Amino acid sequence: MTGVELVAAALAAGASAGLTDTASSAIRDTYAALREAVRRRLAARGEGSARILEASEVEPGVWQAQLSELLSASGADRDEEILATARSLLRDLGVAGSYAGANVVDAREAKGVQVGDHNTQTNTFN
């Protein structure tokens, strides 16, 4: 997942989660922090850029391409604070693939390897 895809996915997921009553305050706070950080980045390019962020929350399909271009042009897709907040939001929302690349495993010629969380394994090597 590229930086643009990550941030765009987090913004979309956060916007839809914010519409439900079941979203926790932590999720709403993380989404607000992400949105504000992205808004500041886009506002530096002009007020019209920041308006596209707002429009993309109302009609995501219509504005997604323009928002993606702006995220890339503004450098939001390379800002470590924005990327970390986006990953955190997607992780908290349980979105699959939200932290793709977080666990990179090279298991060539390995024996008895498990990848994942909460695994149990017993190995006997001769």
Question: What percentage of residues falls in helices of 4 or more residues?
Answer: 55-70%
Q: Average pLDDT, to the nearest integer?
A: 80
* Whole-number total of structural domains: 1
Overall 3D form? elongated
Strand proportion, as a percent range, falls in under 5%
What is the CA-CA span between the terminal residues? 41 Å
- Structural class per helix/strand content? mainly alpha
SSE series: HHHHH
Note the total helix count.
Answer: 5
Extract low-pLDDT stretches.
Answer: 97-101
Largest sheet features: none
Strands, count:
0
Q: Whole-number radius of gyration?
A: 18 Å
Architecture overview:
This protein has helices at residues 3-18, 25-43, 47-58, 60-74, 80-93. Mean pLDDT is 80; it is low at 97-101. Helix 2 (25-43) packs antiparallel against helix 5 (80-93). It has one domain (3-93). The protein is elongated and about 65 Å long. It is an all-alpha fold. It is built from five helices and no strands.
Question: Summarize this, please?
Answer:
This is RHIM domain-containing protein. The chain contains 5 helices and no strands.
